[in-house]
Amino acid sequence: MLGAIFGDIAGSIYEFNNIKTTRFDLFNPSMSVTDDTILTVAVADWLLQESLSKEKLILTIKDYVRKYPHPMGGYGTRFSVWAKSEEVKPYNSWGNGSAMRVSPVGWAFGTLERTEEIAKLSAEITHNHPEGIKGAQVVAAAVFMARNSATKDQIKGYLESRYGYDLSRSCDEIRPQYQFNESCRETVPQAIIAFLESTDFESAIRLAVSLGGDSDTLACITGGIAEAFYGMQYTSSGSNFYQSEMAEFARSKLPSGLKRITEKFYTQFVKPVS
């Protein structure tokens, strides 16, 4: 989950000011968590609770929006209206919000089938359009497979055959014409391609941000998968997972409440946080 959080942070200052290169400062002090991180931690919090019901997830997400009402970049317009109202019905969104918040689901269950089932449930509270559901399931499945030692070819093959995404392009082919797009269909495949083309966690984040578009969400999705596949070692130092500069930078940007839930999630589902 720290991989998704770090990706969100790294892309935060480029969401509305795209940078079409992999050469940028990973630790810019202006970077911040956005709604992507807040909602990712909200899903993690829900997974830590006893009841995996839609009703409980709705209450949890609305509570997080109340606690963190003004993230960098704001919340999506339709989501914000829903989250701040008494409404509990979904609004048929096909946006990428269902995919950017789902990475914790990929860590929490022992089978791919159960992972996809809960990813669907997590999406349906808001993003009940088929594309919104599919985006969440694809990302959760990729995280699950990556943490269970699947190869990139196996991940790519499964996602293409089961979900019909075209993952054959390269980042260099996508980048020149790619523009801001909030849909799952035009965000999730691109984020996965950045992961597939990467050589380590760092290069995955750099590739995702370099595509442009909704850069914090792209890198959040890519980062969640890349962490499960590589860990978060920082290439130049070779330091271990929890002492890596990127993991520590992500943790340093988290408000105390988000940090507490993140560490609790790692203790229960991933590995102890030192």
Key words describing this protein structure:
274 residues, mainly alpha, 15 helices, 58% helix
Overall outline: globular
**CA distance, first residue to last residue:** 16 Å
What portion of residues is helical? 55-70%
Proportion of beta-strand residues: under 5%
Account of the protein in words:
Residues 234-243 have low confidence and may be disordered. With 274 residues, the protein is an all-alpha fold. The protein is globular, with a radius of gyration of 17 Å. The chain is built from 15 helices and no strands. Helix content is 58%, strand content 0%. It has helices at 2-11, 35-48, 54-67, 77-83, 97-100, 105-108, 112-124, 130-147, 152-163, 171-174, 188-197, 201-210, 215-230, 245-252, 256-270.
